[in-house]
Amino acid sequence: MMEPSTTQMAGGPRDRRADALGDLRVLPDEILCAILEELTPRDVARLACVSSVMYILCYEEPLWMTLCLKGASGLLQYKSSWKKTALHRENLPDKYIECNRGFLHFDGFNSLYLYRRLYRCHAKLDAFYVDNGNVERRKDISLEDFHAEYDGKKPVMLTGLADAWPARHKWTTDQLLTNCGDVAFKISHRSSRKILMKFKDYVSYMKLQQDEDPLYIFDEKFGDIAPSLLKDYCVPHLFQEDYFDILNEDKRPPYRWLIIGPERSGASWHVDPALTSAWNTLLSGRKRWALYPPGKVPLGVTVHVNEDDGDVNIETPSSLQWWLDFYPLLADEDKPIECTQLPGETIYVPSGWWHCVLNLETTIAVTQNFVNSSNFEFVCLDMAPGYRHKGVCRAGLLALDDDGYEDVKKNTLCDEQNSSHSILSRREKRARNDEDGDDLNNERTKNGASRYNLWKDGFSYDINFLSMFLDKDRDHYRSPWSSGNSIGQRELREWLSKLWVRKPEMRELIWKGACIALNADKWSECLYEICCLHDMPSPLDDERLPVGTGSNPVFLVGNTVVKIFVEGGLEAALYGLGTELEFYNILHEVNSSLKNHIPEVLGCGILYLDNGTYTNLPWDGKGVPDIVTKNNLTGQKCGVDDFSFGVWGKKQFEYRNAEMPKPESISSAGPSNIWPYIITKRCEGKIFAELRDRLSREDVANLASFLGEKLCHIHLLPRPPLNILPFSDIEQDSGLPKINGNFASFNYKSSMVAEWEIFIGTLTRRRKDVLSRLTKWGDPIPRKLIEKVDEYIPHLFANMLNITEGIACKPCSWIHSDIMDDNIYMEPSCVSTSSETCGEEAQADNDFLCDSSVNRDVKSWRPSYILDFSDLSIGDPIFDLIPIYLDVFRGDSYLLKLFLESYKLPFAINNSKNDSTENDDKFGRLSYLAMCYCILHDDDVLGAIFSIWDELRSANSWEEVELTVWGELNNYKGFP
């Protein structure tokens, strides 16, 4: 694309845009810049040579900042400009980067879009502050007055809370440079990649940069990498109550941040995660704040709610852009609550409030989010399944579609007195991210005006009102989990369970939150019905809430454990219980010693609700209950003594669903009013997850040996007969070799290869979407490894398992699939008081367990039980190593070695071509099998791997990951 030389016209220089851009001239500058952001740095550098206008478009620092950060990860060092930084990361010779040629100037080209960006890059904010503002300021406020006037109600600027902090004089740029110059802090930017900068490099960047939206330090791990900073401040007395502090540090969501940023940097419009409240203390510099009450979306901001998983995404301009381009468009009644924060001041931001922050000069601050009694129910609401309520919490009734709006209009509206700050309500249905200054009233059509009035008079940030928008058909245990939630489903259950036990005085409030987030009232009613049928005592108040972190409601009632199967929908629940009961049946038939380490089954059955009446049917796993036949949940013809929902039926069910997305709602997973359940004897002691940090190295080593021995028993247990041939659809996917359309020389009398068909077919189906699944999981899985996954995993899994010439390298076996730290029970093996030595273990154990008030120290613990066999399957025993090694052992190769020494079984038949584990053939490496199973796992196992072995995030190949994680397997001598 060449252009003629510019000619001087009578009215001035000719507009060179058309000639310089050719066919691209029809695109506005903002679209052209957006296209350039999708190119590589090298391509942009080349494109700059095409024409004068392309040179101008491709020279912009904001463009090069985007290009650099898009491809950056890990440690970043700024090279005086973003173009030099980006090209330096391309490993170009310095002569191409350090170009001393002067700037080129062109007449005949104007761009308002580029001018605005340039202006924002060089804007000075010396006078850009609010003299007084309209946020209330208080000094020396009591805790009682704070709760009564502000907590959960409105923002307030507090003075005097940090006067005694060492940080007031120690947290300056110069002192932090001296004390933390080489510490690498996390940088906030508009990218999903994790970028770090050493503080000394960041200070250098702050001095040199001319960015419209500068990088700033926003690090939630600063207490780990610079622990001395935690000694320089303390949580103010007004914010000591924090329900999340009941969780261990590694399980609680991010809650405290060090914030450092230069002039023009800041946080764009947002609502804090999980609808938590926050306090923010400024140590140096000045910050300008703007705030809107819950539901009032600022002009220029758009809220998107994902209807699949409820995740809320926000499109927003930068802080500076909003104040320059959108703030002037607001009528006085639509302007935000705002103020300027000065050093030593602490601002309180209540739950659900929109806020935006702009640094007027270099600032240093610390902030923490918290959950207390005023926002607890809102936090539970935000983590409840469904999506509509999430949007309403942030955008008010304006987030509803027309049907939802009409439903609310027909129902009772909130009292006007409950609608706080209605004077600040916005007028448009959905804020728009435009720069053309559209009239704020342009959306107030007849319906729009009606909706605005309803929002103004009807919306209330009240938990009862907001709970109206929960999706009643979605259940916590059977619905997709929003990726934007601050903690996972398991962590949520653990959190509520711990609160229930440790804060009995708060149980009325905790119960309300649990009913919102977990449907605890429904499961409590089911529990009562189960207890009645089995002549069990009614649950005590202590026993009303589900316990544990599993994927099904579990209750502790007296000396029993009641588990209600709901995960994956009704059909999956039936297969879970049916397989477990079949396993117990075989366990007792062969009189395996393993039964001494598995909780005794006391009862089981199916509970269902029909026309408001509960019916409870006993079921031992055999035959097909009438309620199941009625709902057409099985097409198999089974005898009354057959396990119709046993493990082979479950394997077919898993195969059928291997290519199907997980159900998006309860309606797609079968009836929601039928619940299989099991009652087992309660174990004495504690689960390993609760004891991990208290156990000695010797205790953990004994646990490794115990697990090896018990897994050996599980893998040797006889398999039930294969009774579901033929597998016409499975054969198509299995990848097993055929001759003339038939499987070659396979002996179906032993069923060995037939058993492997389902296992291999399921792996093959999972392989088909492995790239999309890994991409969806994303960080911390390295992008470059995701792109190489297809070439690493075999296309024919029969080759990986060495199934050739009618011989399988090993038999299938029972596998537990879920031996994790919450499915292992430990009991005291040595208890003593300070004046006693260990006596007889049995007596000590009895005293400890029977009288918890006795002041005794547990000297050691021994493993006693393995729990939760609902995930039982049949397949490769190596599969069982994944949860044990990654979750229980946390990647400790020494514990894996002890486990293998106790396990003793071979993982493969030692045939001639695999005489040496050093063979270059990857199919001869046990580590290769284990790594492939990790990649194809239903759960995000790779996320755990790259979290345990952080250094592998820079790995260049899957082989490197494989040998680092699973290399110990290749030293295993468990071959016959």
Question: How are the SSEs placed, and which strands pair?
Answer:
Layout: E1 8-9, E2 12-13, H1 17-21, H2 29-36, H3 41-47, H4 52-59, H5 61-71, E3 74-75, H6 82-89, H7 94-97, H8 112-122, E4 137-139, H9 143-149, E5 156-159, H10 167-170, H11 173-180, E6 184-188, E7 195-198, H12 199-208, E8 216-219, H13 222-225, E9 256-261, E10 270-271, E11 277-284, E12 287-292, E13 302-305, E14 312-315, H14 319-326, E15 337-341, E16 345-349, E17 354-359, E18 363-370, H15 376-382, H16 388-395, H17 402-410, H18 446-458, H19 463-466, H20 489-502, H21 507-518, H22 520-533, E19 554-557, E20 560-564, H23 570-589, E21 601-610, E22 613-618, H24 626-630, H25 647-657, E23 674-681, E24 686-687, H26 688-691, H27 697-716, H28 728-734, E25 738-739, E26 742-743, H29 752-768, H30 770-777, H31 783-786, H32 789-792, H33 797-800, E27 813-815, E28 824-832, H34 841-850, E29 857-866, E30 873-875, H35 881-888, H36 893-903, H37 926-935, H38 941-948, H39 958-966
Parallel strand pairs: 3-7, 4-5
Antiparallel strand pairs: 1-2, 5-16, 6-7, 6-8, 8-9, 9-18, 10-17, 11-16, 11-18, 12-15, 12-17, 13-14, 19-20, 20-23, 21-22, 21-23, 24-28, 25-26, 27-30, 28-29
Helix pairs in contact: 5-6, 15-21, 20-21, 23-25, 25-29, 27-36, 28-29, 37-39
Keywords: Iron, Metal-binding, Nucleus, Oxidoreductase
GO molecular function: metal ion binding; oxidoreductase activity
Cofactor: Fe(2+)
